[in-house]
Specification:
Two copies of one chain form a homodimer. Chain A is α/β, with parallel strands linked by helices. Helices cover 38% and strands 19% of the residues of chain A. In chain A, helix 4 packs parallel to helix 6 and helix 8 crosses helix 12.
Chain lengths: 382, 382
């Protein structure tokens, strides 16, 4: 299958590209290095300096014999994106090409404006490239569980039947996000749903939880194939940050009470989910929404698990509650459905002590490269 | 009160500016003539060539002695908008500065992209100018009833309590619009709601139905103060188009069966509603949503009323069903609440035979200027 991976230099994009290429698909990756540039601007670079996309593809080719096509282009620019669709004629497009940091989007006007325009225009252009050049192409879009926020009712997979005054109808599940970044994903879903209804395109919107992990089936062949591992407050996800804090011997910093519950998943499960969505595409005129995570934890529980695993291997791990820089509920109801991907065949990799230990040992290899000043919150909401 | 009217050259913007200026407020109007430019590009110019904003303000000043400040600026450009906020320090901002045509937004990529970026960035910039320079300022935003679409349940005023699996919460009423233009208004509301929660700004989002009419209390003083009267398929609203067809002696063209029900209102009631919202502002941290229309009609009923009124004054009016260029339901449930503005004091001007007759007579003055080629649909959905 011809698979176009937009945002192919990202934490998920690059492992996705390798995954599909290793399994015999024709893969083209596209990126404009926005994340690398923003990480450099905000002193948020990854733990390990990753090779650029051309270098990554060369290394991957050297160890596997497989070829990944690389294009440096800006998906928020329609003419650049159209050109790639016309050249490659993808059967599936996997769209990760968004500014991915919630804290970045909350720094101020400029960062919020950049996030809004990059993300909306990238999604808008993907829709139009598909409509015009490959109307049968399956769009797999990475949304986020953060679109739903923390409602006081069970979170369904994308849709809800509402009964009201004796009548009923089916609607997109109500969404109310906690950052501008997450709000752009709400807007993305609205745009996709409009154009699905209008043009009958096929779209899978994967509402993903925070991802953790440094390894996939493809990363073992060469240490330079490692995913981008951000551990700072801006581009790092919470578990990755805790791992680095544990290794660096600084307290795991819990925002507020740590009662914030979210659904998490292993990077390997992201790849499984995307593969499942790819093999079982949405129908024409369908916006299929799947909640993509495997387990729910509170931030405090995550920290506790990292502490236990760290102490088991001789690290001295402590926890510290700090003022919450975000506006979010620290105690709330949270029960999100996530049956769809399991029914499609997902076999979860759960967050066991062994898994945490393995990640900690991997981070320990890079202990000297940890910049401790990156891990404390530098961005406050509002 | 210092009132900033964004989109002050529009069908609603200019009458709004005159209304508030006539009543002793300090008014500044801002426009970049986007609508005029798009109308010229698409052969959709108004029935009467309206003076430009500076000319309008001069004429208004000559007949009333009142001064309306005019600024030609682009609200989708933050630095241009910021400058006006810093100069004028508005207490209320009335935000009409959006590309207002659903058919225009459906022509193709370029028009859709322009609509998306203009509308989202204008709203985004208004939010940020308020946050940074006048955090107490009341934002009155014109949304549209079209955000709700045509759900199979009663449409509430902006919010709905959802009970689900034994728990409940309050959410934005689900929205699912029928054009890209209307979808941008859905996205506007999402953005406003996010920043209301985050920064506690005060916002009223007026979900308005299609407006009709050529007169307000201020337009009588000089014929050049008339609102922009578009009657074409792109910038004209349905009733205005029917009036022109009746006067021109061509059939009133009903899209499909004409069972499309919407809530309509008189231009004079738009002014009343905006005035009421202005005098009774939203609280800090409140997104107040009001459904702004006075009566529900199907398109067929509207056409029938114009036929009757037209025949009464000697016009020969016929109806013609034509293929619907839009993707929309032609028969559907529709029951939209609209009690909020009535409770605040709105006294509706209803669509009586006399009102239609008066509008028809006004259009008859300009009969020779009607371009019959503009009234048939030129834009198809999908």
């Amino acid at each position: 299958m011809r698979i176009l991976v937009l945002g192919g230099d990202g934490y998920l994009g690059w492992p996705t590209a390798m995954h599909f290429s290793a399994r015999g698909n024709e893969v083209m990756v596209v990126d404009n290095y926005l994340r690398r540039n923003l990480a450099r601007e905000t002193r948020s670079e990854a733990l390990v300096r990753n090779p650029n996309l051309h270098e990554r593809a060369s290394i991957f080719n050297a160890v596997t014999g497989k070829k990944i096509e690389v294009r440096i282009a800006d998906c928020s620019n329609a003419s650049e994106l159209d050109e790639l669709f016309l050249e490659f004629h993808p059967e599936t497009v996997i769209h990760y090409a968004e500014q991915p940091s919630a804290p970045y989007s909350m720094i101020g006007y400029r960062e919020a404006q950049r996030t809004l325009n990059n993300n909306l225009n990238a999604t808008f252009n993907v829709i139009w490239s598909v409509i015009r050049y490959v109307p049968e192409c399956h769009v797999i879009k990475l949304g986020t569980m953060g679109e739903y926020g923390t409602p006081n009712i069970d979170i369904e997979e994308g849709w809800i039947d509402i009964k009201h005054n004796g009548r009923s109808d089916r609607f997109l599940f109500p969404r109310q996000a906690g950052s501008l970044y997450h709000t752009t994903k709400v807007l993305d879903t609205d745009l996709l749903w409009f154009y699905v209804r209008l043009y009958g395109i096929r779209v899978t919107d994967l509402m993903q939880g925070p991802v953790y992990g440094l390894e996939t089936a493809e990363t073992g062949a060469d240490s330079q194939l490692m995913p981008n591992f951000h551990y700072d407050d801006i581009f790092g996800t919470v578990l990755n940050r805790f791992l680095v804090q544990a290794v660096a011997g600084i307290p795991l910093t819990i925002y507020g009470k740590g009662g914030q519950v979210r659904g998490y998943l292993n990077l390997q499960d992201t790849l499984q989910c995307v593969e499942l969505a790819c093999r079982q595409p949405a129908s024409k005129g369908e916006l299929r929404i799947l909640n993509q995570f495997t387990e729910q934890f509170s931030v405090y529980e995550l920290a506790e698990r990292v502490r236990e695993a760290g102490n088991d291997i001789g690290l001295k791990v402590s926890l510290q509650h700090i003022a919450n820089p975000r506006k979010e509920k620290e105690e709330h109801y949270y029960n999100a459905k996530h049956a769809g991907l399991i029914e499609m065949g997902l076999k979860p990799h759960l967050l066991t002590g062994d898994v945490i230990e393995r990640m900690l040992r991997r981070v320990m290899e890079y202990r000297s490269m940890i910049d401790k000043e990156k891990v404390l919150p530098r961005v406050r909401w509002g």
